[in-house]
UniProtKB/TrEMBL annotation, chain A:
GO cellular component terms given for this protein: eukaryotic 43S preinitiation complex; eukaryotic 48S preinitiation complex; eukaryotic translation initiation factor 3 complex
Family, as annotated: Belongs to the eIF-3 subunit L family.
Protein name per the record: Eukaryotic translation initiation factor 3 subunit L
One Gene Ontology molecular-function label: translation initiation factor activity
PANTHER family according to UniProt: EUKARYOTIC TRANSLATION INITIATION FACTOR 3, EUKARYOTIC TRANSLATION INITIATION FACTOR 3 SUBUNIT L
Keyword line: Cytoplasm, Initiation factor, Protein biosynthesis
Species name: Apolygus lucorum
From TrEMBL, chain B:
Cellular component per GO, a single term: eukaryotic 43S preinitiation complex
Single biological process term from Gene Ontology: regulation of translational initiation
Designated name of the protein: Eukaryotic translation initiation factor 3 subunit K
Functional summary from the UniProt entry: Component of the eukaryotic translation initiation factor 3 (eIF-3) complex, which is involved in protein synthesis of a specialized repertoire of mRNAs and, together with other initiation factors, stimulates binding of mRNA and methionyl-tRNAi to the 40S ribosome. The eIF-3 complex specifically targets and initiates translation of a subset of mRNAs involved in cell proliferation. Component of the eukaryotic translation initiation factor 3 (eIF-3) complex, which is required for several steps in the initiation of protein synthesis. The eIF-3 complex associates with the 40S ribosome and facilitates the recruitment of eIF-1, eIF-1A, eIF-2:GTP:methionyl-tRNAi and eIF-5 to form the 43S pre-initiation complex (43S PIC). The eIF-3 complex stimulates mRNA recruitment to the 43S PIC and scanning of the mRNA for AUG recognition.
Amino acid sequence: MYSGSYDDYEGSYDRGGYNEYDYEPHSGDPQADLEYDHRMHSGYARIPDTVKNFLGFLCNAINEGQLFEIQNLYENTFPKLTEQFYDKTPWPEEAEVRQVVGEDQLFLILYKELYFRHLYARCPNNLNLQARYNSFNNYCDLLNCILGADRPVNLVLPDQWLWELIDEFIYQFQSFSQYRARLAKRSREEIEETTSSKNYKIWNVLCMLNALHSLVDKSNIKKQLEVYASGGDPDSVAGEFGRHSLYKMLGYFSLVALLRLHSLLGDYYQAIKVLENIEIHKKSQYSHIPACQISTSYYVGFAYMMMRRYSDAIRTFSSILLYIQRTKQLFQSRTYQNDQINKQTEQMYHLLAICLVLHPQCIDDSIQQHLREKNYHEKMFKMQCGDLSEFEACFQFACPKFLLAHPPSLTGNTPAEADYMKDATKHQTEVFMDEVIQQKMLPTIRSYLKLYTTLPLYKLATFMNPSSQTTEKDCAALRTHLLCFKHKMKNVVWTKGTSGLEGSFQSGSELDFYIDHDMIHIADTKVANRYGDFFIRKILKFEELNHKLHSIKL
Amino acid sequence: MVESMRQTVAAFLQGVDRYNPNNIRDLENYVILQSQENAYDLEANLAVLKLYQFNDNYKIDITCQVLLKALTNLPHTDFILCKCLLNHEKCNESPIKEIINLADLLESCEFQLFWQLLQDRKMQELCSRIVGFQDSIRKFVCHVVGITFQTIQKSLLTQLLGGVDDNTLKHWVQKYGWKEIEDDMIFIANQDENIKTKNITEKIDFDSVAGIMASCT
């Protein structure tokens, strides 16, 4: 389903993700193409009985609001059947499904959402422009259905499904933006098709924002969170719609989606701001979907890192990585989520490594150990030595796939190899690397300062430039670096309150200093060895051994 | 004037209306007003850049003012936030490119070089439109000096502040509660009170080991 689609996506182009234009009579007329597709499929696809039964059960369960039944069908049966019958082929078309379940508008919309999600993940060959449009329109139908009603729609879906629905909505937007941006591989008609005014709204960033904001507003989720954060009962302000689980959770997930969307556009301020009143490290009634928690922390941590709030970034990453370490077994059974979660976990370890190089500080032992075991230390060592390409490589591996907010202008003289998508990532990388370059001297200075409690300025200047006679100019340059050191290590750190943007200036890094006359006075953080964990582990081992010995029968 | 504007703008920045291109004129005027009246509203300024991003047309003049205003709010990282909303081409366009260069110097604490570059006629013209620009930068300089030094040479401080005259220097020293002492030095603060070696030792409370102790019988 969803998993791995980030990676598959790029590859699928080369495997001919849309090359059907080369051998299919593409008319350019959406309606005709749609019919053509129908004929193609109904020709050979007959729905197996197990699948028919599944569709019937699911439709029934949804209509009767049997949450556990829906959950089971969605989380277990659907992936199983996908593997069995539709591993690399699409699920049955809407028309065929209609014959099975009858004219059930809402169910068909939900079914199509699953259908397209599967298409994106497993059937890149069938994912043509029209399919992308149809999927978008299906989302619009769903939103109209949910948001347009006078009373809350009588529908319950598992939160897992709701999260994946919203997550997929953003993913497909991201995917479309990439698709549109890869101009070089598009035919002229296709380019015109994507930029024509009638299709302008499809997968348009303003539509996305509008949709998500509408879900947020309809559910009153912001007010609910505010009341919840201050200890009150969110239902008291939720209103008719917001009390309904469907709206409440869609509202909450839309906030996370906005966090992601703003991040992809490089707007880190709005990204953090949209999560006001959500304390992401606290367990709450909204925080029971692991994939959502992990995604939230990834984007929040990333935004903090870009804002040079390293302490906050490190806190965010450590906390979620610890959670992942502890609950690892939970994700293993559901493989379709696993890939996504594992990828994001690895990305977060990279980001954490970067943050720890720029802002060394104590972190939890088990995270430290993971960094050591998985060879992050080598990367960190290179970065500490000022290897800029290592910084860049880590950043580009770990950053989200950034987006351009508007379609590239097509004035006719576009270079053939134009790939506008990379521009967005390139720009964010540049901004980050500018910061790294400004801080380039700091690790070296830190490594010297660590050895002393006091150190004369001129002596450090000599260390920095051992080959030549130390001059007043060297001292002046060093003084600048020292000022820079202090400036960069004093950052806003969140302390309390409901907004992640707030905080106070703190020097959270492990090494600090001040200059008196021409003497540097250094304050380090000394961490004593920890024995508690060691002894507890030994005690448990001993217990186990003892237990075994007792159970041996002679 | 700025205050009433701040409220109007804050109101429509709440919801989807922040992306409404019809608001751009108001927001741009607000930027100009901030420059003239030495006020500052990061969120509104980011909204302008975001609208430029979405609509792919932008006024370089306004963008420059937003960027320079962001510099006045150092040590906060507003400038980075603004930069992230531009793109590669814009960053290389003059005079945005030069402003980024200025930011680079400030972020690296190359204050003397910064003041030198500010002498450039074009730069002077740009910055003169931001009321209180130089003093805002001096505030940032004082912030960095304040956290770094226990005592600093008077001559060095003068340079860092952009070669100010004696009276101006006295003004800044007084403002931050610093003191002129012998040997042409300035006493900043007793840093050893804030900057101390920390020892982190393991503390194990009884509750966290009670369970395991109970089982060891």
